[in-house]
Amino acid sequence: IRNHHGHLIPLNSSIPANSKHPYVLEVAKIFQHCPKPRTIPMTVINKTMKTRLQTIERRIQRLEDLLPQVKLRRNEKLTQQEIECLNQKLRFLHQRMQANSHTWKGVLIRAPLW
């Protein structure tokens, strides 16, 4: 026997009469487990979906607001002339390092294992 909340009521002789909220009688085999169906209420699902949608909308709005600034920042980073100047300096340094390359002509000797 279950009450209107779905809680089990022990069987004894002192069960009060209840006309407002009738009892539910479940018939089951001995030691049969009757799990209560567990479902997530739709209000919780709706609330989480709304919050996710709002966060996504906020992120999209923020990206749309920052898009012109991103283009300006990218243009300000390096111009084509600066890149060419850096490439020339890098080539010059590479040539200097190749011209003055020092190699070690020694030999590593292992210690004898006596």
Automatic annotation (TrEMBL):
Keywords, in A-Z order: Coiled coil
Coiled coil: 46-73
Name assigned to this protein: Si:zfos-1056e6.1
Organism the protein comes from: Haplochromis burtoni (Burton's mouthbrooder)
